[in-house]
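Help needed: design a sequence for this.
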């Protein structure tokens, strides 16, 4: 009984942490979107930077995924 209560608390803290982190991110993206609509220079620069960061994150996650798959295959073979 103790472990299920502990795991529930850990999940609750985890989701609370995600909400606390994601709220300002969503608010900031909304602010940049409104700025781009109003043709503000800072918002256009911020949108370009955010797009580049997003593309790099996707590429990095795909590379890491391939690395993890290859590492799993190596341990499966027994090297």
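Sure. Designed sequence:
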């Amino acid at each position: 009984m103790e472990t299920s209560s502990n795991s529930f608390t850990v999940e609750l803290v985890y989701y609370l942490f995600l909400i606390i982190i994601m709220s300002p991110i969503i608010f900031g993206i909304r602010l940049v979107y409104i700025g781009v609509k109003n043709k503000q220079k800072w918002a256009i620069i911020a949108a370009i930077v955010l797009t580049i960061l997003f593309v790099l994150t996707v590429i990095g996650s795909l590379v890491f995924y391939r690395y993890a798959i290859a590492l799993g295959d190596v341990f499966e073979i027994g090297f």
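Helices lie at 2-37, 41-77.
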